[in-house]
Automatic annotation (TrEMBL):
Residues 1-24, 192-211 are annotated as: Disordered. This is Late embryogenesis abundant protein LEA-2 subgroup domain-containing protein. The chain crosses the membrane at residues 33-58. Residues 1-14 have a biased composition (Basic and acidic residues). It comes from Urochloa decumbens. The keyword Transmembrane applies. It comes from the Eukaryota. The lineage of its organism: Eukaryota, Viridiplantae, Streptophyta, Embryophyta, Tracheophyta. Keywords: Membrane, Transmembrane, Transmembrane helix.
Amino acid sequence: MDEKLLSEARRDGDDNQPSLPTTPRKFTVAESVAALLLLIGIFTLPVVLIVSLFHAAYIESTNPFLPPTISIAADGCSGLGARAPRAFNFTVAIDNPGGRFAHDVCVGGDAAVLYSGVPLAAGRVEERCVPPGGAAAVAVRTASGGVGVPAELAALMAEEERATGAVPMEVRIMTAQESLWCKAIIMGGGAAAQPSPCHRWSVQDQSDGFV
């Protein structure tokens, strides 16, 4: 009997004792380092991405081998399918992105329009120079001077327009030192034409005799 009472008293005493606070688990050195690296990655990743984008843009803008581009687009013409005096209007676009070794890009001189190697119109283009980092549009106005073309050539142009909806023209802009060669597409029905790239080379020989 006494032992039973003593056992119950001990149990009651254990229940009344205050519980000790739980000691938090300490992180190991490896866990602490991993958590620190994770935080650093979270905060530095956006910065690295932004810096990379700006660096790529800078490299592209200062690329010493990034060449200028010259393109041409037909603005309009008169009398494609008839033996009549012709006039052709074009726009030459110059984009000089620049770079560490960039220089001015100039366009100008005598202009000629040919179809299948046959001269159709001529004109004069005022010289325009674009510095590095610049862009410009140069108007090209040519006319046949009141002279028509042979009936066979006019029929060939009209047939190509009916078959493909467009007529390709060769446009040359020449100086004493170099020639700019372009292939301009004249769309049928007055539709707007997409720009076509132009190419430059040093003038050595004009074998077709057209100057």
